[in-house]
Amino acid sequence: MSSEAALTFLGDVARAGAELFVIVDPLGNLPIFIGLTKNMGPEERKKAFRTAILAGFILLTVFAVTGQQVLTLFRITIPQFMVAGGILLLALAVKLLVLGGWTEIASSSSVGAFPMACPLLAGPGAITATIVSLQTRGVLITLATVAVVFLLVGAILSAAEPVHKVLGETGATVISGVMAIIIAAIAVGFISKGMVNLTKG
Questions:
Q1: What is the mean pLDDT of residues 35-60?
Q2: pLDDT of residue 57
Q3: pLDDT tens-digit readout, 7-47
Q4: Main-chain dihedrals φ then ψ at residue 55, nearest 5 degrees
Q5: Is there a contact between 130 and 64 (Cβ–Cβ < 8 Å)?
Q6: Neighbours of 116 (CB within 10 A)
Q7: What share of the chain is helix, strand, coil (3-state, %, to 5)?
Q8: Cβ(73)–Cβ(81) under 8 Å?
Q9: CB 59 within 8 A of CB 67
Q10: What's this model's pTM, rounded to 2 decimal places?
Q11: Do 13 and 141 form a contact (C-beta atoms < 8 A)?
Q12: Contact (Cβ atoms closer than 8 angstroms) between residue 129 and residue 20
């Protein structure tokens, strides 16, 4: 790979990674994760975080590799999936803005998988973004994007408690609110692009 091609590849990964990072939103989810694991010991909390990272990474990797096959199996087009995913993502953003976070309760044994891995880390928005990236940027860039984003997620969650203490409840709430607005904007983009492509089709 030439230096120019390498720079182009890194630029594509950076752009796709920035979008996916905003949707995954590990910083905004920090207070939620801390709240869900507040009754756990340090080791149990770390185990829940590791489960969330691994499950989320595997889920998005599967969609990065087989996303088109999954859509073909259910006879769903990319524009249809973009509209559906955008609507679900917009609903999630509204829920975060109105309720301030994820309010459902999960048992300590499964909290890493649900709701931390899905739908908080690898929800409909992240899955939609991964499939769209697969179609528009290719499998290598998409896989690299998922890997980079979840490396960052792992780094953030490994320092969850000290980061949360630095941010404080107010800081974490502000970040979550800003991220929710950005997620809503991305959702509107998905819906509008999907509708345009459906109209053209």
A1: 85
A2: 96
A3: 899 999 999 999 999 999 888 788 778 777 766 777 888 88
A4: -65, -40
A5: yes
A6: 27
A7: 85, 0, 15
A8: no
A9: no
A10: 0.76
A11: yes
A12: yes
